[in-house]
């Protein structure tokens, strides 16, 4: 009896399965065949759009991207990127010395100065601090950590990144702050000579807590870390409560916008690497430097203007940039 029931049930099951699958068959058929045939029909559709004789093969010839490949204008555009780190920042000798002086004491286990570097956009604050930090690692046995708070803008993410740069394996997300801080302290007890730069400091969500954390760690560890904060905001606008401000006991270094002759020198150095010889006449560089110095002194803008003028000249098949190309940027 139960065997019969089983047979009946199996029959029912089979029937149900077939009736469910049958409506799906046309859909599957369309999906496999229909979409494939659509793909196959693309060339002919495209041919129609392109007109009589042009075939796809002709259109996709590499000369679309290869034409003008080395270019009459550019040699290597990467030197015009705003992320490019120059070998030595032009015209920032005094600032380089000041930043170096602030972090130097950590090499001998002495207490460093904390420094707030500030000034408007595009005037070489990050570039200069990065340069000093690179030199600190190259020329001393110290450790230099450069963190951008645009990317790590919360207390746990910044402290975690600090630990990772110290060489700890990446801690799992959600580690309690106390644990992160005690690891940082442990590292500072064993290592002397660490300088930490927090770039775009004004992007931090909780600057007061971060400063408080780092000052506490400094007080409780065998060795201190040298802290350099970089910000667009002047010191009085940096959001710190009085307690953190007083603990930080911060010195300041103000960057001034570039003048025309500094911008000219920066542009000349970049142009030498980025452009073909003779592609950038002196008058073009002078005009950009003059105009930018009058408006903002922002080196990023100067580099962008030169880059765009270069692109314009290239599009027009020229071998050098003209003042006219500048007007069109
Ligand atoms: N002294 C310099 N020598 C060579 N290149 C420079 C110099 N100063 C700035 N630059 C270039 O100008 C661009 C902007 O510089 P940087 O990013 O350092 O400015 P910033 O002051 O940090 O700006 P922001 O406040 O927007 O972060 C970068 O491409 C950098 O390479
Ligand atoms: Mg910067």
Automatic annotation (TrEMBL):
Residues 264-326 form the Cdc6 AAA+ ATPase-type lid domain. The keyword Disulfide bond does not apply. The keyword ATP-binding applies. Pfam families: AAA_16, Cdc6_lid. InterPro entries: AAA_16, Cdc6_lid, ORC1/CDC6, Orc1/Cdc6_arc, P-loop_NTPase. One of its GO terms (biological process) is DNA replication. It comes from the Archaea. Residues 89-147 form the Orc1-like AAA ATPase domain. GO terms for molecular function: ATP binding. Keywords: ATP-binding, DNA replication, Nucleotide-binding. NCBIfam families: orc1/cdc6 family replication initiation protein (TIGR02928). This is Cdc6/Cdc18 family protein. It comes from Halobellus rubicundus.
